[in-house]
Structure formats: structure tokens, C-alpha cells
Amino acid sequence: MTLKSTKPMIDIVIARAKGTLSSTVEEKAKWIFNKLKGSPPKTLPDLLREYNLPPGLFPQNITCYEFDETKARLIVYLPSPCEVSFKDSSVIRYANRVKAILLRGKLTGIEGMKTKVLVWVKVTCVAVESSKSDKVWFTAGVKKSRSKDAYLVASNGVRIEDF
After folding, report:
1. CB count, 10 Å around CB of 42?
2. C or N: which end of the chain has fewer Cβ atoms within 10 Å?
């Protein structure tokens, strides 16, 4: 076999490898390019809106967030554990770091969020059935719906001693 006859085969292998890696490399390249260019990253409320979730689901005073689109992994950082009272009288507590999987209309596998249902219960999932839905479903031991309007605007978190 000569080098000339193997070149097309090598080109095919490289093209296939590029195809499988291109989306990951492309995402990382966009991230690096935006960092170098100084493009402002999307705000957390904008990201939540894009995924059909209410933009006020997290407090206003987050420090920053990380979102890995390839793994759908979201991490939200807060300066300290805090508590937010919403206009529907519900109360949510946030740890200084909240982790979750962000999917269209759903935040699942949540770590670092609690709600009061007689006692403080860990929130494991927050979901909206459709963009036209006026309910947000919280799963915290039991699944309970709340008015979506209460979570349209981010509120300030009140610092608490213990999550």
C-alpha cells in the first residue's frame, strides 16, 4: 500500500472524528472566543427564559453561574445561603451553591434548594409543562403546583445562617 492510496482513507477517518468532536470543540471555541472578545455572557434569567423556565426562579443576588450545554449541567453560586419569599407566599431556601440539570421546561436533579412544606424539604425538580402554562411544578417529596407569575421577577435573597 502506498501513501497515495491511504490518504483518502485517512481523510475519511479525520472527517468522521471531526464530526463527532465538532459540537464539543465548537462550544468550547465559542466560549473562549466570547471571553477573549469580551462579549457579555447571558444572564441567568435569560438562560432560564430560553429553557422555558420562569426567570425569577433564583435570587437576584447570585454571584455567577456555570452552564455546560453538552452535559446540561447548571451550577449557580450565591454569596451565602439565603431565603426568598415569593409573592404567592411560598418560601425557597438556597445553599451557596445550587446544582441541577437544565432541560427544556425542567430543572432536575437539584441539589441545594429547599422549600417549606410544614418543614423544610429538599426540592428535587422544578418543571413547567409548556410555555403557555401558568403553573410551575415543584417536586419536594410531593409534587405541588404554584402560580408561575410568582417567579417571573427575581427577588433578593435574605441571608440565613444555615441552609
Report:
1. 14
2. N
pLDDT, tens digit (0-9, with 9 covering 90-100), for 48-86: 999 999 999 999 999 999 999 999 999 999 999 999 998
CATH of the domain at 94: 2.30.240.10
Domain with 120 in it = 44-159
Residues 28 and 61 in one domain: no
**Residue 111 DSSP code:** E
Tens of pLDDT, residues 101-128: 999 999 999 999 999 888 899 999 999 9
Give the residue from 132, 44, 153, 158 showing the smallest Cα distance to 88. 153
Q: Which of 93, 107, 110 is nearest to 53 (CA)?
A: 107
**How many of the other CB atoms lie within 10 Å of CB of 59?**
20
Instruction: Please say if the pLDDT value at position 163 is more than 90.
Output: no
Centre a 10 Å sphere on the Cβ of residue 12 and count the other Cβ atoms it contains.
10
Q: How far apart are CA 65 and CA 92, in angstroms?
A: 18
Q: How far apart are CA 127 and CA 148, in angstroms?
A: 10
Local structure of residue 125 (DSSP, 8 states) = E
Span 13-22, pLDDT tens digits: 454 444 444 5
